[in-house]
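Title: Prediction job returns without error message
Component: structure pipeline
Severity: low
Priority: P3
Assignee: unassigned

Description:
Job completed but the reporter wants confirmation the result is attached to the right record. Sequence as submitted:
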Amino acid sequence: PVIGGSDALPGSVPWQVGLYLAGETPRDGFFCGGTLVAPQRIVTAGHCVDSVQEDDIRVVFGVDRLSAAGSANTAGVSEIRIHPSYLATLPPVADVAVLTLDRPLPISTFPVVATDPSGPAAGTPAQLSGWGVTAQYGGDPRAGLPDHLQVADVEILAGPGGACGLHGAVFERRRCCVRGGPMPVPIPVAEIQAAP
């Protein structure tokens, strides 16, 4: 979810991609987002891809509006690798996956760095982005999906074992409790390493 966000400025989140079902349009078949971390690698949540095969997924990239995507802005998936410790519990455990694309994408990637296993410190600024729901909802989870890419500036509320360990993902007053998924966090340039 990107609750409390706003429309992203054109090109401001170039590494943001959307996953959608093959045979559908990006707008109608959208089911999850991801982060391009290398020209042919996407990091996404494990629960997004634990019940699909590579041929079931298409990736939309380089667009701010899902309805504006054309065939030039899509790619296929050649491999899905879900974390070996992933458990589909509530909340999921080790909820991360890496997708290998069928071709390199001609857009900017998000830098991957080695981080402290305890996660970012409370108060660290971060940014959420995606086409996820923009308001609390009941019933049909697709009812609140926006067409325009959303962004929300947040702060890390707590790390593992704190509020995260008790409540899972918490989103309150533009603060976020992170369990450790693919969420871009601003990183000093000196700490940036090349993505694999």
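Comment from assignee: result matches the submitted record. Confidence is low (pLDDT under 50) at residues 160-196.
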